[in-house]
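Example (one chain per record):
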Amino acid sequence: MRNSVLVAAALAASSPLALAQEGESPPSGGLFFSDDQGRDEGDTIVIARKREEVLEDVPQSITVVDADTIEAAGLRTVRDASVLVPNLNVTEFSSRRLSFPYLRGIGSGLGEPAVVTYVDGVPQLTTGSSNLPLVDLDRIEFLRGPQGTLYGRNAVGGLIHLISREPQATPRWDASASFGEFDFQEYSLSYSGPVGSDDILLNFSARQTLREGFTDNDFTGNDVDDRDSFYGRAQLYLTPTDDSSLRIGLYGETADDGGFVLNDIEALKDDPHTINQDFEGVAERDVFSPSVVYELYGDGVDFTSITSFTDWDVKETSDFDFSPFDLVVRTTEEDQEYFYQELRFSSSKDDGAPAGTTQVNWVAGLSGFVSDSSRSSANDLRVGSVPPGFEGIATDSGDFDDEAIAAFGEVTVEFAENWEVSIGGRFDHESKEADLDQLFEGAVTTTSTEEGDEDYDEFVPRLSVAYDANENTRFYGLAAKGFKAGGFNAFDPADADVEYGTEESWTYEAGVKVSSPDGRLRMSASLFYIDWEDMQISLFDPAAGGFIDNAGESNSKGIEVEVAAKVTEGFDVLAGIGVTESEFDDFEDSSGNDFAGNELPFAAAYTWNLGAQYSHTVGEDSRWFVRADFVNYGDFHYDPSNAEEESYDLVNVRAGMTKGDWGLDLFLRNAFDEEYIPIAVPLGGGLYVGENGAPRMFGATLRLSF
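Predicted structure:
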């Protein structure tokens, strides 16, 4: 089958790129193309350094996935879009809140993320809200490498920034309905335009997703991991004065992702998408997040204020013995509320120096948050799982308070016409408190409590240098520090520490960005090396569940290359590849297992995507297109022991046509029905339980704009 996949990929040259109609300029946004910001035709605009810049001018590795790409490729979640990014592996359980990004070997399965997600400048402080639906977006910026100087302590491996589409002055409604196998149904509705007054603009979008489960339970005859979710976003834009703007935003989601479908991975290989369990649980997530962004534009200085509040909660139940026997049922509940504030000053957008003179851009600010969260996990131990008389409910719970404040700044100097130097730093102070409780309710009730209180201070510097060899070639190098504050485990085995320490790393990167004079060919390449101390590693204990430990020393190095070419009008080709070599230099876990010399979890040896799309205009208002996307994940391991590994490749095909305001697309996801296990956890004794990836699905989408 692998040969057939490679042949199909080579013939189709599959691509994530959204392409222009024949005879038109490259589309706005695109992975490499953009022409909608008043710059040169073909420019892609990013805000990686918290100011608008052309993608090729930013001295670091960035992949941009824009609204056209999201629509044309049928990308529905951050996980879908992540396959277009070299060296990025986003794991995903049936419960989407357990979606963990790993970039260049840096990631976090539990606790706080190591690759942080932002939504319109607002950080998502947990992994629980990292894999969001792609609704009403202008683009996603995937920044590789530490971003802590400007974005904070959890951006050790990089940043995923979801940026909303700005509303238009002309009213526009868009509606779509999708149907597919497994009774898949998805309904979307959006509006962009004025509300009551031409000075008040609104973007509003909503999406409902339903489907039956992919996995059958032999014990009950039911399909288990069904899905029912509703997601909505709204952005209200106002201009209080001629030199200011105000954006009031809100997004929310309520999701029922069905029950967990964990099974022994050998059984999943023999009989995919099947479990045999007496108990079927639930995985529910609710998120509510309003925000306010105010900007004031001055003659020499601009001011930005970002204020947000986020409330999310989770409830999950599962068969924790993964068998048809009534032994252990687990219930997990988590909730968090946090308030975030950022005050930022920067050099004015209109304060540009004449060409050929020294140009200085700067940004400085304060940010902070207050977080209150609780976590609870209860194992209901039935007869047969423990000796007679010891049955009962064992509950680990914790209340966590977290406060942080930071001062940050960065100065970029462009001089001698073709040189740029950027230097920045951030000082973070964070205070964490934890009240931890253990309760066993059975024939004998026992309780124990423990408290934790710790402060974490860190300075995070960053330095980059860039040199323009000519108008179309930029070389750069950078060095940046990353860190994650330590914390406290709510659930941990008896031989592990409740507290885990701060993670620190240094990343060194060198790269080049090249484009042809006509903009039809663009390429970027980078080399990186990462050196860690006390990496926070997510481990799994059969009794306690997941917990965090520190690895002593580790490293990761590799290369990333992205190429995009406009071959002819209507035919574009793209390719990307990432190679990572990672290793634990020194790591002995709390149970005495020595993992030195092993590879980091979920650090794929390589990732690559290859693709293309062809579109053709017919008459004045009709167009058809066909596209195929091929992505591959090389060997990676599920945990530090490296006992099990996986690799897989996927092909997605999409074709459609538009006529006037109507559109119809046909899609085929996982076209060759690849059976793979992207996520698994160890139970000890060489046993692993995991979940199969999504099977092949055929469907259609009908679109209407008016």
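Caption: The chain has five helices and 39 strands.
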